[in-house]
Design brief:
Helix content is 46%, strand content 16%. The chain has eleven helices and nine strands. α2 packs across α3 and α8 crosses α9. It starts with a strand and ends in a 5-residue tail after the last helix. This is Glutamate racemase.
Length: 256
């Protein structure tokens, strides 16, 4: 049986790439709902329907666990998914808690995500619990989702866009920037060119994969039973599968 990864598009391949380093002897399914990407600007009920349809398909494949490698999908649907299926389901959330904990006194935290993630109660509740000093700011970055889906990673294009988006912010005031969308991991190098040199950039990938390993062990699900094979699926058809494979190859070159 395989471990499934789900995202609206190419972003989740950044998480899959890291998973294969930790669990190289598993087999994987990666499903991207490219027919409906991006999720960020769409209504919650519409997005939830797309997610349930996709996971219904994955469940029929006989998977042993699911990683919802999408912060937006997690915030919108993970509780519904856990009530619907028996296999372990691991979601992602913006790494605001470690960001607040590890940011130096006097510095702020900037959470970058999709508009839907940022307006969901799940994100607001998370911030209210972990941010008593109110040091967390947030900014939607739909442009980075669009760039990633088009496989546009040219810093000559991306960096000017980032400078424009951040123009109203005092970037020197931020000790940590949280990447609250898996698509954003592709742009670490571009972000480092714009942010203050000492700014940390973190995401939720490591914590998500630790949680995956814990849940597999807790459920007594055998691991190391595969060969590291990956099957790519897409609601958008064969052309999008080829794009996912190219994005995965690029994700494997992202520096830590």
């Amino acid at each position: 049986m395989k471990i499934a990864f789900f995202d609206s598009g190419v972003g989740g391949v950044t998480v899959l790439s890291e998973a294969m380093k930790l669990l190289p002897h598993e087999d994987y399914i990666y499903y991207a709902d490219t027919l409906h990407v991006p999720y960020g600007p769409k209504p919650k009920a519409e997005v939830k329907g797309y997610i349930v349809d996709a996971v219904d398909y994955l469940a029929e494949c006989g998977i042993k666990a699911l990683v919802v490698a999408c912060n937006t999908a997690t915030s919108v649907a993970v509780n519904d998914l856990r009530g619907r299926y028996k296999f372990p389901i691991i979601g992602m959330e913006p790494a605001v808690k470690p960001a607040v904990k590890n940011t130096d006194s006097g510095k702020r935290v900037l959470a970058l995500a999709t508009a839907l993630t940022l307006k969901e109660a799940k994100f607001k509740d998370l911030v209210s619990v972990v941010d008593p000093e109110h040091i967390v700011d947030s900014l939607p970055m739909p442009e980075l989702v669009e760039f990633a889906e088009q496989l546009i990673f040219d810093e000559a294009i991306v960096v000017p866009c980032l400078r424009q988006k951040f123009a109203s912010l005092d970037l020197a005031s931020y000790g940590t920037v949280v990447l609250g969308c898996t698509h954003f991991a592709f742009f670490r190098n571009s972000l480092r060119q714009v942010l203050a040199p000492e700014t940390d950039i973190i995401d939720g990938t490591e914590g998500t994969l630790r949680h995956l390993m814990h849940k597999l062990e807790e459920a007594g699900i055998p691991t190391d039973t595969g060969k590291g094979d990956i099957a790519f699926y897409s609601s958008g058809g064969e052309q999008d599968i080829a794009r996912l494979q190219r994005a995965f190859a690029i994700a494997q070159t992202i520096p830590d």
